[in-house]
Amino acid sequence: MTRDEITTGLAEILEEVAGVNPDDVAEGKSFTDDLDVDSLSMVEVVVAAEEKFGVKIPDNEVQNLKTVGDAVTYIAAQS
Amino acid sequence: MSRPDVVVTGLGATTPLGGDVASTWDAMLAGRSGVSALTQEWAAQLPVRIAAQLAVDPSEVLDRVRLRRLDRSEAIAIIAAQQAWADAGLADSGLDAERLAVSVGSGIGGATTLLAQDDILEASGPRRVSPHTIPMLMPNGPAAWVGLELGAKAGVHTVASACATGAEAIALGLDIIRAGRADVVVAGGTEAVIHPLPIAGFSSMRAMSTRNDDPERASRPWDRGRDGFVLGEGAGIVVLERAEHAAARGARVYARLAGAGITSDAYDIVQPHAEGEGAIRAIAKAIADADVAKRDIVHVNAHATSTPVGDMLEIGALHKALGDHPVLAATKSMTGHLLGAAGALESIATILAIRDGVVPPTINLDDPEDGLTLEVAAHKARHMEIPAALNNAFGFGGHNVALVFTRA
């Protein structure tokens, strides 16, 4: 999967879970500061991403995923 | 210091009869039933396959993402509170948030969330359980969400007294303003448990009507053919305000909340006291608290759920505590029984009855019980001057609440 494909997949999840406009989702964007994803919604995003991309994202990794790009890098390395 | 007067300055509701107060009241005065057949697949196996479902689904009002984190009872409490808040004209009034409190309860709470998430737990494991589960099912959830929505900082309170909840939440609001702890209290009840488990539970108690082939005629308080209540869902919210505060901002006043009476039976967990002793005391206390003449209380919105025992006990209690002059209404004949929201929705009906000078109809009262010695506006609304009116609400657990409203 390319980085762009992963970003698009994350954008779909973010729209479903938190109502984020897919056009706003880009690698440089921070989940909390730029996309307004709160801590409970972030849990939902992580669980949905695990399912969508067939990866495991342990809780102690989630705190390192500050931006969409961080998440894309982590998922790309796992899948 | 004299006790402050408390008035009602805003109303909000979403009910089986309409998505707001105006449409609900119009439907009530027209004698329309909100009861229909449950066509969901899960209903087929149940002994009860009718209910009074919301006329307007919350998804038509709140956005999808917001609804993901709300139990249905929370969503409709927010919708009704938004309406009441706008109706009261408080949005840009400069009200100090620290003088605004909330008192909203529910009879059963977030049961549908609990059950849906348990299904997920069983099917997919704990990691799939929504992180919103706890705030969706906690009993204080509806009150807390309403408080968040309106920015209330004088306290957010949750009453839980089964089918007396909505009325008791309003009584608590009265106490809060009288005690000087707030100038405005957004108060009421909410309920949304049309789901197989609560229906099966009530049904096992033999408390519900099984008139499945004739939904609109199933809720028939005081009629000889009644066979139990019909479950309804909805929310009712009133804005209570210190009268001087309302006058100072030139607010439109619907009615005055003159008094409340609360008692407990200490008799049985579900059966009402055999002589209605607790109900009699609640009504008497409300009248004394309101300091109005009994003869001025010419209308009662009764609890009257369409159960064989409860309906007639209330008639006896009204006889003893109030007299035989009031004209009664059982609006549950149209709305079904909204459990924790019932006392709030029926308070709204009582307030509008006073404002408009009209007793709403009681439908399906085709063959009244012999013991129904008080007058009822059967089938058709009755226009009359209503200087004061009473609303009763009783709940499993032996809760009795009576509220007296008077003309502003």
TrEMBL record, chain A:
Positions of modified residues (O-(pantetheine 4'-phosphoryl)serine): 39
* Location(s) in or outside the cell: Cytoplasm
Q: Which GO terms describe its biological process?
A: lipid A biosynthetic process
Residue span, Carrier domain: 4-79
Annotated metabolic or biological route of this protein: Lipid metabolism; fatty acid biosynthesis
Q: Does the keyword DNA-binding apply?
A: no
Q: Which Gene3D superfamilies match?
A: ACP-like
Q: Name one GO molecular function term.
A: acyl binding
Kindly give the Pfam families that the UniProt entry links to this protein. PP-binding
Which purpose does this protein serve, as stated in its record?
Answer: Carrier of the growing fatty acid chain in fatty acid biosynthesis.
Assigned protein family: Belongs to the acyl carrier protein (ACP) family.
Can you say what this protein is called? Acyl carrier protein
